[in-house]
Write a structure and sequence with these properties.
By secondary structure, the protein is mostly helical. It contains 6 helices and 2 strands. The N and C termini lie far apart (45 Å).
């Protein structure tokens, strides 16, 4: 206890606890405001904020790893490479980019995932806590968009988009089931 300016005893509070309380209050106010918005406005705000968070995470992750794209030099355009080898090469480049590439990839994955989850939650009127349907659908969308934005296509872009979406969805479903 410390003595205040006018002789009143004031309890000294932990500054970290004060910061956490302030942040929780701000977050709850933001969520309350967001719940009052229309579906397109809510989806847009959720997508933008999640994409910004994903970009920050991706940029940070990209700075932790060396830019491995130099290990995968771009083959000359006149090189006649096997199409499957070229697809594998593009997949390796998509996963080995520097901070800007990783920021873009993470922004797309987190933004699309959040947007789909937000829209599904609003349409269904509830959040899936005991079921992984919402998270798996959102993971499919983020995997499909990651495939498109990272240029992992190859000869058959549609097949790659679907297989990437299914992989992300199954991985998310497995993670969700493991948590239960």
């Amino acid at each position: 206890m410390e003595e205040g300016k006018q002789g009143v005893m004031v309890a000294a509070q932990n500054p970290i606890a004060q910061l956490q309380a302030w942040f929780n209050n701000l977050q709850n106010g933001f969520r309350a405001w967001l719940a009052k918005q229309s579906l397109p406005a809510e989806a847009g705000v959720v997508t933008a904020t999640s994409a910004a968070q994903g970009a920050a995470i991706g940029a940070f992750m990209g700075t932790l790893t060396n830019d491995a794209t130099s290990a995968f030099p771009t083959p000359p355009p006149q090189a006649n490479l096997n199409p499957q080898a070229m697809t594998s090469f593009k997949q390796a480049q998509a996963l080995a980019g520097g901070p800007l590439v990783q920021a873009r990839n993470f922004a797309v994955m987190t933004g699309v995932n959040a947007a789909i989850s937000c829209v599904m939650k609003r349409i269904r009127g509830k959040e899936d806590r005991g079921c992984s349907i919402e998270s798996m659908v959102a993971a499919f969308g983020s995997g499909a968009m990651f495939s498109l934005v990272s240029s992992m296509g190859g000869q058959n872009q549609t097949t790659n988009v679907i297989s990437s979406g299914l992989f992300f969805s199954l991985a998310q479903g497995g993670i969700f089931q493991y948590r239960l």
